Amino acid sequence: MPAQIAPAERLLNLVIALVNTAGRMTKEQVRTSVAGYQEAPSDDAFERMFERDKDTLRDLGIPILTITDAGHGDDIGYRVDLDAYALPPLDLTAAELGVLAMAAQVWQDQAVRADTSRALTKLRAVGEGVESTDLVAGLAPRVRAGGGAFSPLVDAVQARQPVRFTYRAATTGEVRDRVVEPWKLLARRGGWVLVGLDRDRGASRSYRLSRIEGAVRPAGDPGSFDAPAPEDLAAALRTWGSGPESIATLAVLPERASAPRARAVPAPPDAPDWTADPVTAPLVANRELVHVPFHAEWELAEELVGYGAAVVVLAPLSLRRHVLHLLATAAVLDQEGVGVDG
Length: 342
Hints:
- It is a single chain.
- By secondary structure, the chain is an alpha+beta fold.
- Helix content is about 35%, strand content about 20%.
- The chain has helices spanning about 5-20, 25-35, 45-60, 80-85, 95-105, 110-125, 150-160, 230-235, 260, 280-285, 295-305, 315-335, and strands at about 25, 65, 75-80, 165-170, 175-190, 190-200, 205-210, 210-220, 245-250, 290-295, 310-315.
- The strands form three sheets. A five-stranded antiparallel beta sheet has the order 7-6-5-4-8. A three-stranded antiparallel beta sheet has the order 1-3-2. Strands 10-9-11 form a three-stranded antiparallel beta sheet, covered by helices on one side.
- A hairpin with a 4-residue loop joins β6 (about 190-200) and β7.
- The radius of gyration is 24 Å and the shape is globular.
- The two termini are about 35 Å apart.
- The model is unreliable at about 125-145 and about 340 (pLDDT under 50).
């Protein structure tokens, strides 16, 4: 039996087909010629899959046209509007190419690693030199792929299908089953995050895919829950970038923690003299002060934990306590022989 094609690969295949069609593609042509749609077990299943994929591509900004022609009766076709979709000639600076190289590091799983490598090779040909990738060397840690949880969650989000999985909480190490109505997948520092409604708690929650243990399993039929109201989704996403901005003050070892350094801002005007305080002076000795803006304290805490002793949090105190709590939890789990994957 051939390997099942992942949803992301199927979407890419559809884009390629609709971009390269001479005039239009009918649904039947899509089903028979675009890899991934032959797996639909029935006509109804194909219809649902194709309609979801069209909606997803349009949400991503890909202009899919619906083509009707009197000469073809009621047979509707589709293609991508090349005038709206085509890019102008690329003229990338070294810095711009470097940013693209850093973004490509998000996709470290084998399924798309080769594609992103080939794309960057082509883009470097129009860049300003091979040194452009050196601009972001070590700038950001790799974002782990979602592993085996990613593909079934993509399908579940599109199909509005509840899922069940085993999850290890970061703060307590508690392992328990979760039943979730998946709303959205987000790529954030350190990995992928699922945002959805936790049915047991009756409230929205976020889950790192790297903390999902074992398989993601269906917990209901496709379409068995309604899409979240816009205000509910907005509230669930509020901690992922909106809200008031704060400044964290870090004492960082030289040439370490490049990612926070890249986001650093000047010291706040009311910043204390940490070297004059007898309590903090030993903490900043032989270290550099770095001031990093942030919105979600727990997200920054999870990033800083990955640098270990290379980063000491000076302020705010709540962020320092959060980091210390995560480090203490990791130490306990390590003593118990439990692997920790941020």
